[in-house]
Design a protein that fits this description.
Elements lengths: L1 E8 L5 E2 L14 E7 L4 H10 L16 H4 L18 E2 L2 H7 L3 E6 L9 H14 L4 E5 L3 H12 L3 E7 L5 H9 L3 E5 L3 H15 L2 E2 L5 H7 L1 H9 L7 E5 L4 H16 L7 E7 L4 H7 L26 H11 L2 E5 L1 H13 L6 H16 L7 E6 L7 H18 L4 H8 L2
Parallel strand pairs: 5-13, 6-7, 6-9, 7-8, 10-11, 10-13, 11-12
Antiparallel strand pairs: 1-2, 1-3, 4-5
């Protein structure tokens, strides 16, 4: 039996009622959902989770709601808004393994979610919760992935969506996807962090349900990523889980999920977590390497990896405490290193957006430095789809191909030269 005990402030521990649960406590701390586990039969739940793998319709066909007992047990089934999210591939690539230099590497492609990113794992829970409370208008600030996911689920629920999107350093593909799902999209001068601050000040008076990662129900849904990874690996996780760091909600969600799996006996040991940030948007990594306990925001973050172009990640305290408790690490990678890793992932047949490629770039750097042992194993979380940012593809691939085509006379000899005959 799993019961949702309460919603509490992460910083001061104050309890909050569900209907009153905004997104921050009066002290400024983020809220989190605390489950009580009473007499849980882990082996029985494993059987249930396995049986649900054969579902093709209904809520339990979802790779998130498959684990409903561990995510939101008391939510009525009729309130669930799902597009069968999760159920994403777990891949091996020999070329990537050799490039990184480790014994074994897996790539968990959250990019295969319905809207093309890991945001769907959390968004299905947030929108379902909001609809159960009677909301019909949903909102977020976003660099693109969150907004497209929100717009999709709001449309599925027959509700309205409103999003704030910075005018600069975003992917137009994600904005177009958001618009296509029918969201009222508002461009503004500023950064993702400015959008979050706006909602924290004015969200309640607007009467909108906020779906950013400050929403604790988003975190509950994102836990399912590590549940699915563990189930796919027969509940034996690798030594390391590597993920990109933007708002840092994924770090805290996966960490929360791992702790629950360990407490319930689903797994026998805790893997280590490595958080990789882009060099131009790496305030969390800077805090860690400088030995500080407080984060100093990057006021003007800048990276080609738009999904992690965040200078003031809301979940930094939770991420800090998690890495300290399990012995995790961080690193930063340049845009050039990200593009090099992206090329490896794309050429492996898996593909990803730039922010996802930061995982492989970061793991490569951590292995080279000796932080990660070559004989260990790792799973890299790929968070966004290859087509989320076609500007990058055009600049790095198409223009080169176009140049070669326009300047070369097409003959059998040139074709043989291209293919090495």
């Amino acid at each position: 039996m799993v019961e949702m005990a309460t919603i509490a402030c992460y910083d001061c521990g104050k309890r909050h009622e569900e209907e009153d649960a905004g997104y921050r406590c009066e002290c400024g701390g983020l809220l989190e959902i605390i489950h009580e586990f009473k007499g849980v039969d882990t082996e029985r739940l494993k059987r249930i989770f396995h049986e649900r793998l054969s579902e093709r319709t209904g809520p339990y066909a979802s790779g998130v709601w498959r684990y409903k007992e561990l995510i939101y047990p008391e939510l009525p089934e009729e309130a669930i808004v799902t597009k069968y999210e999760g159920n994403t591939g777990l891949y091996r690539s020999e070329s990537i393994r050799l490039a990184v230099g480790m014994r074994e590497i897996w790539l968990k492609a959250q990019s295969e979610n319905p809207s093309g990113s890991f945001k769907d794992n959390g968004m299905t829970v947030a929108v379902s919760h909001g609809r159960a409370l009677g909301y019909s208008r949903f909102t977020c600030a976003s660099t693109g992935n969150t907004s497209s996911s929100l717009a999709m689920y709001a449309a599925l629920a027959g509700c309205e969506s409103f999003v704030l999107v910075p005018k600069e350093q975003i992917s137009i593909n994600k904005v177009l996807q958001t618009l296509a799902y029918g969201a009222e999209t508002i461009g503004f001068d500023g950064t993702y962090d400015d959008g979050i601050r706006f909602y924290e000040r004015h969200g309640r008076e607007l009467g909108w349900y906020i779906c950013n990662s400050i929403n604790p129900y988003r975190i509950e849904g994102q836990k399912s990523i590590v549940y699915e990874l563990a189930q796919s690996m027969d509940w034996r996780l690798p030594d390391w889980i590597v993920l990109p760091g933007g708002a840092l909600s994924n770090v805290t969600a996966l960490g929360k999920g791992l702790k629950e799996l360990l407490a319930l006996g689903f797994i026998e040991r805790m893997p280590k977590i490595a958080v990789v940030q882009a060099e131009g948007a790496s305030p969390f990594h800077a805090m860690r390497i400088e030995g500080r306990r407080e984060l100093v925001p990057f006021e003007r973050p800048s990276t080609i990896a738009t999904a992690v172009n965040i200078g003031h990640p809301p979940s930094w305290k939770k991420a800090r405490d998690l890495l300290e408790s399990i012995g995790g690490t961080t690193c930063s990678v340049t845009d050039g290193e990200i593009l090099e890793a992206k090329r490896l992932i794309d050429r492996s047949g898996i593909g990803c957006e730039p922010a996802s490629a930061a995982t492989v770039a970061g793991l490569r750097k951590l292995v080279a430095s000796g932080t990660v042992d070559r004989d260990e194993t790792a799973a890299c979380i790929l968070t966004g789809n290859l087509l989320k940012d076609t500007d990058i593809l055009r600049h790095t691939l198409w223009e080169d191909a176009e140049r070669r085509t326009l300047t070369t006379k097409l003959t059998i000899e040139t074709i043989k030269g291209w293919i090495g005959l």
